[in-house]
Amino acid sequence: MASFILTVVASWGIYALLGMGIVLVYRTSRVLNLAGGELAIFIGYVVAIAIENGLSFPIAVPLGMGSAMALGLAIFWFTIRRIMGEPPHVGLMLTVGIATILNGLMIVLFGGGMIAVPAGLSGFTTIGSLRLPTTDVVAAIGAWLSIAAIGLVYRVTNLGLQMRAVAERVMLSAQRGLNVDRTVALSWIIGVLAAGLAGILHGERAFVALSATVIGISALIACLIGGMDSLKGVIFAAFIVALTESFTALYIDPRYVLIAPVMILLVILIVRPWGLFGTVEEFRRV
Amino acid sequence: MTPLLEVEGLEVVYGHAIRAIQGVSFSVAEGQVVGLVGLNGAGKTTTIRAISGFLPTENVRITDGRMRFAGMSIRGLRPYQAARLGIAVVPERDKVFDTLTVRENLEVALIGARSSGAEPGRCRRFLTVHDIFDLFKPLAQRANQDAIFLSGGERQILAIGACLLSWPRLLIVDEASLGLAPLMRRQVLDTLALLNNELALTVLIVDQDVAGVLSIADHGYVLENGRVAFAGSREQLLRHGDVKEFYLGQKEERERGYRDVKQYRRIRRWH
Amino acid sequence: MMSHAQSPRIPSSLPISMGRTLALCRGRAQWLAVVVGGVALLALPRFFSVFWIHLANVCLIAIIGAVALNILTGNARLVSLGQAAFLGIGAFAAGLLQRTYNVPFPIALAAAAIAGGIVGVMVALLSLRLRVLYVAVTTLVLHFAVTTFFSFVQAVFLDSSGIILPLPNLGFMELQTPTDWYYFLLAIAALIVLGALNLLRSFIGRRWIAVGEHDVAAEALGVPVRWAKVSVFAVTSAVVAFAGALSAYYVGTVSFESYHLGLAIAYLAMIIIGGVGSVLGSILGAVFITLLPYVLDQIFLIAHLNVRANVLAGLHQIAFGGLIVAFLLFEPRGLAEIWRRVRSAATDWPFRYRSASRSVR
C-alpha cells in the first residue's frame, strides 16, 4: 500500500513538473507545447547515454539540465521568436513539427530503444517501518523539489514577476519597458528545463524509450483539466491523472491507463472547458 | 528654446482607406501641461500611439509628418525605444496588471525602467517604490492587495505612479478621466497638476473632459475629425467662442445671427 | 490567355453544379491543360511499372483524405488532429460490416462514410463553443478515445491480428491488380476534387470559409455558424472515413496499430506544406508527403550514405518535422503558393506582374 502511494506521488510529481513546463510556456507565449513528452524523453536519453559513457549520475544530471536549457533557448530563438503574435494554430503545428524532429533525432542519435537510466539506485530504502523502492523515492523527491523551485522563482523573484506581467498583458509590459522577448525566452528555457527534469526522473524510475513520450500526453491532459493558464491547476489535475493511471495500471490493465484521464478531460471540455482553475477570459482569448 | 515634443503635419492612415489624422501639428515645451482634447474618434489616441510607437504595424502607417522629441526624430520608433528616451504613457485601458499586487505593479515598472536602458546624456534619477507610496497615500494603504480590487481612480493613480518610476521626461496620459466619477476626475487632474508643479514634470493630457483639462493645462489643442481645429493658451481657448459653445457647453451671451452660424458651419464643413 | 468575355451566367445555388464545374476552367489554354493532363493520367499505367502505379494509388487515397482535411482545417480553420481516428473509423466500420455481414464493397464504403459523418457531427457538437486551440485538443482526445476503443475491440472481439478483407468487387469488375485500383481511385479522387472545388465556391463553402476567417463577424453577418461547423465536420469526416475504408480494402487488412498520431500529423503536414485552404495545395502536399520517404532514400543512395534501416526511419522523421517547421516559418501558404508564383512568372513574362489580380484558388 505504501509503495502504491509512493508510486502515485512520484507520477504526480513528474506529470506536474512536465505540466508546469507546458503552462509556463503557454502563459508567456500563448503557444501550446505539444512536444513536452518528446522534449522530456530526449533529455532523458542524453543523461542515459552520458551515464553509459562513463559519467556518474550526479554529473550527468546537470549536463542534462544544461542541454535542456540550451534546447529551450534554441527552440525560442529559431522558431517561437518568429511566430509570436500569430494565431494559435501556428504555434501548435510548430510544436508538432518540433516533436517530430525530436522523435527522429532520438532514433538517429540514440537508437530509440529502451534504456534505463542507471543511477545506481536499485534496491530499497527504509523509512521508518516502510521499505520503499529507492528509484521512486528519488523520483518523488526530485520532482517535488523542482516544482517547489520553479514555483519559488515564479512567485518571488524578479524574473517570475516579469513572467507574470508578460503573461497577463504583453502590451502593457512593453510600455513599462520590460524586455518581452527576453522574458519569453527565459520562460521557454525554464519550461524545457522542467520537461527535461521530468524526463530524467522518469527515466530514473522507469526507463527512456520512444514509447515513454506518452508522459507528455498525460501531462497535457493534466494541463487541460487544470486550466491551461494555471500553475496551481496543473498541479492539482496531475494528481487526478496520476491517481487514475496508477490505479488502472495496477488493477485493470496497463494498456488502458489513458482511458480515465481522457474521460475526465472529455467531461471537463463539456462542462467547464477552461479547466478547473483556469480563467474564462483566457479561454475566450484563444 | 526648442520644445520638448514637436509634431508637424502628422498623418496616419488605417488600412488603405481611413485617414485617422491629417496635418496635425502641436508642440509641448518642457515643464508645461498641454491638453489634447476632442470628441470620440477625433484622433487623439491615434496621435498618442504614433508618438509612443504603439501603432500596430500591419495595417497602420504614418504617411506624413515629422515628430521630434528633444530634437531627435521619433518617427517609426519601437515602443521600448520611445520608453528609453523618456516618453512614458498611461494607456486608456489595460493600465495596470490585475493579477499583481499594487507593490508588485510598481516593482515590475521599476524593473522595466531600469532595464530599458539609459540614453547617454539623459539625467537619470529613479524614484523608488517607497517614494511613490509617499507621494500617493491611497496606494500605500493598499500596497499588498491585488490591483484588480482597486477603484478606477486608484488604478489611474497607480498607473501614473508606475510611469513616474522611470523619471520620464514626458508623461502622456491617455483619457485621464475615462470612466471616473467627477470627484475622482478632479483628484487625478489635481495629482497631475501637483506633479507638474512640484517635480517639474512635463505632462501631455489627452481627454474628452475639456473643462477639466483646461483647468490645469497651459496650452491646449482641440482635435476635430483628425485635424487641429483650435489651438492656443488656456486663456485663449477659454475665451474662444466656438470652444465655449461646443466643448464647454457655455452658450454665447449675444444672439447668434444667421450669418454667424452659417459662417461657422462653412468653416466646419471645409475642415 | 483569357478568351474574349463569355456572357456571365447566373451562378447556381446548388452545392454542386455542372455549371460551376465547367466554369472552373477559364479559357482555352486551361481546357487544353486539363485534357492533356487527363490523357496523361489515364495513360500512366502503360508507361510505368507496378511499383509506381502502387505509389500513385497511395497518393490518390492520400489526396482524398488531404482535400477533406484541408477544407476542415484550412478553410473552416477547425484544426483537427483526429484524421487518424476518422480513417480508423471508416476502416473499422467497413471491415466489421464486411466480416460480420459480408456486405458488398460499395455498401461497406457507404457505411464507412456514414459512420464518419456521425462521429464528425458528435465532435462538432462538442466543440461548438470552443475556440481554435480547444477544438484541436478535442480532436486529440477523440484520437485517443477512438484508438483505445479500437484496440480494445480488436483484442476482445477479433483475432488480434485485425480484420482481413477480401478483394473488393464493384459489380462490374473486381479490383485485383494495382492498375484496376488505379483507374478506380483516379475516378473517385477526381470526383472528390471536383466536388471540393465546387463546394468551396458554393454558398455552403463560402459559409465555411467565413466561419473560418472570423466566426464572430460571420455570425454578425447572418451566417448560421453552428450549422456551418456541424456540416463541415460531417462532410469532411465522412470523406475521410471513406478514404480510410478505401485504404483498408487496398491494403487488405484492418488493424488499430496503423492509426497512430503520426498518421494525423502526416496529413496535417500535407496541408501545411501543400498550402492550407487550397485544393491544389492538398493535392501537392499529399503527393509530396507520400513520395517523400522514397525521395529521401534516393538522395541517401546517391550520396552514398549507407544507412541502417531503423536509422532511416529516424531520418525520415527529422526531414518531415523539419519541413513542417520550415514551411510554417518561411512559406506558410505552401507549395501551392510557390506554384502560383512560378506560374505567374512564366505566364506574365516578360512582364513582372499582372496589373489586375485574378483570384486564384
Description of the molecule:
By secondary structure, chain A is mostly helical. Chain A contains 12 helices and 2 strands. Helices cover 75% and strands 3% of the residues of chain A. Chain B has a domain of 159 residues: 3-Layer(aba) Sandwich (Rossmann fold), CATH 3.40.50. In chain B, 39% of the residues lie in helices and 25% in strands. In chain B, helix 3 runs parallel beside helix 6 and helix 6 packs parallel to helix 7. Chain B is globular and about 60 Å long. The two termini of chain B are 31 Å apart. Chain C is globular and about 65 Å long. Chains A and C meet through helix 3, helix 4 and helix 11 of A and helix 6, helix 11 and helix 13 of C.
* Helix content bin of chain C: over 70%
Helix fraction of chain B, binned, reads 25-40%
Intertermini distance of chain C: 17 Å
- Cα Rg of chain C: 21 Å
- Helix count of chain C equals 14
Oligomer: heterotrimer
Helix and strand content put the structural class of chain C at: mainly alpha
Average pLDDT of chain C, rounded to a whole number, is: 84
Q: What portion of the residues of chain B fall into strands of 2 or more residues?
A: 15-25%
The low-pLDDT segments of chain C are none
Query: Total number of β-strand segments of chain B?
Result: 10
Supply the key terms:
heterotrimer, A: about 290 residues, mainly alpha, two-stranded antiparallel ribbon, globular, B: about 270 residues, alpha/beta, Rossmann fold, 6-stranded mixed sheet, about 25% strand
Produce a short descriptive summary.
Chain A is mostly helical.
List the helices and strands and how they pair.
The complex is a heterotrimer of chains A (286), B (271) and C (361).
Chain A: H1 2-29, H2 36-52, H3 57-83, H4 88-110, E1 124-127, E2 130-133, H5 134-156, H6 158-168, H7 170-175, H8 180-205, H9 214-226, H10 231-251, H11 259-271, H12 280-285
Antiparallel strand pairs in A: 1-2
Helix pairs in contact in A: 1-5, 1-6, 1-8, 1-9, 1-10, 2-3, 2-4, 2-8, 2-9, 3-4, 3-8, 5-6, 5-8, 6-8, 9-10, 9-11
Chain B: E1 5-14, E2 18-28, E3 33-38, H1 44-52, E4 60-69, E5 72-73, H2 79-85, E6 87-90, H3 102-115, H4 129-135, H5 137-141, H6 152-164, E7 170-174, H7 182-199, E8 202-207, H8 210-216, E9 219-224, E10 227-233, H9 234-239, H10 241-246, H11 258-270
Chain C: H1 18-22, H2 28-47, H3 50-75, H4 83-101, H5 105-126, H6 132-157, E1 163-164, H7 178-201, H8 203-213, H9 215-220, H10 225-251, E2 253-254, H11 261-274, H12 279-302, H13 309-330, H14 334-348
Antiparallel strand pairs in C: 1-2
